[in-house]
């Protein structure tokens, strides 16, 4: 039997599926420290991760390892150059999380625009004594302009929902999407600068790469309207969190919604002192159905990549399919 490591606690029934094919070392405890993660991979043929960093040193210490299946669409925790050099396959879990994540983007954007978290904290603190015409005035979504940075599958799902809110959709992406998608979404392609100047609500849905580091920093925040909101459901590091704290404090922008943070699960402590930001602990894909679908897809990828099950040799979501069939180096 081939051997795998499941690096994180996941649904027990998914572990049972994996046990039909593999000898499974399952970490049911806290996130493995890097040295223990590396040690437990030493004799493994495959691994199932969820954001655990895998680079050249980890791969070199695991000479049998042929596939690492990430339970996430984002795979910035993988050093893909190292995967390619070692002929190790990486897989991810796209599509199954599109709608839940898009829903959550809206939830955060609406909470930020309408000051839901801020007013709830105030109410819970026992401060509500009377109605006031100017209590927690926010910004409208209906009829406003939505700016989507990153028009991939999740960005498109998010933009599709804007129709019911009669919003104008503008977007920026590495490249323009197909004309029929632009037409369906009624979305206008603009430069990043234009988007920041024009949008009432900016949502970030782009992958984290070196080029996207601090896509939104002080200069970009300075372009935004004072009434605008910024929502990040993509990755920590795409926003310069320290610059965002300043922009929120000085009311350079009205509010923000953040599900991801630089250095998470730790976050810039100043964020906790700013009232006009809604903070959630990286849960945009966290519905029961979607997390189950992600876990099962991660298992499907691992089973198939290791030559087992009905799709043996044809994993559904290879990131670097060119290494399939090559000997490990
Ligand atoms: C994951 C995510 O749950 O899919 C992604 O890229 O950000 C989340 O859905 C998280 O990354 C854990 O792997």
General description of the model:
This protein has 329 residues and is α/β, with parallel strands linked by helices. It has 2 domains: 3-94 and 288-323, Rossmann fold (3-Layer(aba) Sandwich); 98-279, NAD(P)-binding Rossmann-like Domain (Rossmann fold, 3-Layer(aba) Sandwich). It has helices at residues 12-19, 34-41, 56-60, 80-86, 98-113, 116-124, 153-160, 179-185, 192-198, 218-223, 241-249, 288-305; strands spanning 2-6, 22-26, 46-49, 67-70, 89-91, 145-149, 168-172, 187-189, 201-204, 229-232, 255-258, 277-279. Strands 8-7-6-9-10-11-12 form a 7-stranded parallel beta sheet, sandwiched between helices. Helix 5 crosses helix 7 (153-160). The two termini are 22 Å apart. The structure holds 2-keto-D-gluconic acid (8YV). Residues 50-51, 71-74, 97, 285 line the site of 2-keto-D-gluconic acid.
Write the layout of secondary structure elements.
Layout: E1 2-6, H1 12-19, E2 22-26, H2 34-41, E3 46-49, H3 56-60, E4 67-70, H4 80-86, E5 89-91, H5 98-113, H6 116-124, E6 145-149, H7 153-160, E7 168-172, H8 179-185, E8 187-189, H9 192-198, E9 201-204, H10 218-223, E10 229-232, H11 241-249, E11 255-258, E12 277-279, H12 288-305
Parallel strand pairs: 1-2, 1-3, 3-4, 4-5, 6-7, 6-9, 7-8, 9-10, 10-11, 11-12
First and last CA, distance: 22 Å
Mean pLDDT across every amino acid position: 98
Alpha-beta classification: alpha/beta
Main β sheet profile: 7 strands, parallel
Helix content: 25-40%
Q: Which percent range describes the beta-strand content?
A: 5-15%
Distinct bound molecules: 2-keto-D-gluconic acid
- What's the β-strand tally? 12
- The number of domains: 2
CATH class identity of the largest domain: Alpha Beta
Region (Disordered): 308-329
Keywords: Oxidoreductase
Pfam family, one: 2-Hacid_dh_C
Family: Belongs to the D-isomer specific 2-hydroxyacid dehydrogenase family.
């Amino acid at each position: 039997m081939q051997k795998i490591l499941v690096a994180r606690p996941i649904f027990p029934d998914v572990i049972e599926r994996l046990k039909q094919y593999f000898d499974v070392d399952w970490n049911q405890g806290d996130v493995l420290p890097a040295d223990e993660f590396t040690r437990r991979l030493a004799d493994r043929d495959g691994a199932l991760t969820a954001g655990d960093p895998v680079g050249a040193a980890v791969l070199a210490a695991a000479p049998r390892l042929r596939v690492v299946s990430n339970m996430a669409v984002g795979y910035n925790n993988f050093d893909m150059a190292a995967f390619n050099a070692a002929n190790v396959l990486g897989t991810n879990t796209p599509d199954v999380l599109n709608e839940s994540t898009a829903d959550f983007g809206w939830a955060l954007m609406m909470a930020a625009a309408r000051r839901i978290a801020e007013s709830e904290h105030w109410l819970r603190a026992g401060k509500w004594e009377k109605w006031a015409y100017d209590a927690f005035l926010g910004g409208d979504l209906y009829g406003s302009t939505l700016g989507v940075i990153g028009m991939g599958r999740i960005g498109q799902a998010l933009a599709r929902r804007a129709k019911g809110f009669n919003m104008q959709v503008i977007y920026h992406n590495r490249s323009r999407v197909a004309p029929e998608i632009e037409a369906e979404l009624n979305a206008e392609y603009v430069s990043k600068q234009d988007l920041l100047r024009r949008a009432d609500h900016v949502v970030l849905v782009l992958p984290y790469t070196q080029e996207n580091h601090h896509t939104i920093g002080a200069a970009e925040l300075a372009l935004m309207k004072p009434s605008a909101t910024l929502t990040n459901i993509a990755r920590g590091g795409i926003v310069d969190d320290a610059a965002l704290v300043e922009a929120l404090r000085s009311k350079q922008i009205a509010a923000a919604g953040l599900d991801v943070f630089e250095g998470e699960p730790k976050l810039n402590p100043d964020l906790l002192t700013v009232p006009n930001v809604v903070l959630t602990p990286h849960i945009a894909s966290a519905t029961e159905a979607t997390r189950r679908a992600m876990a099962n897809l991660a298992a499907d990828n691992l089973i198939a990549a290791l030559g087992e099950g009905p799709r043996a040799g044809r994993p559904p979501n290879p990131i670097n399919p060119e290494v399939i069939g090559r000997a490990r180096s």
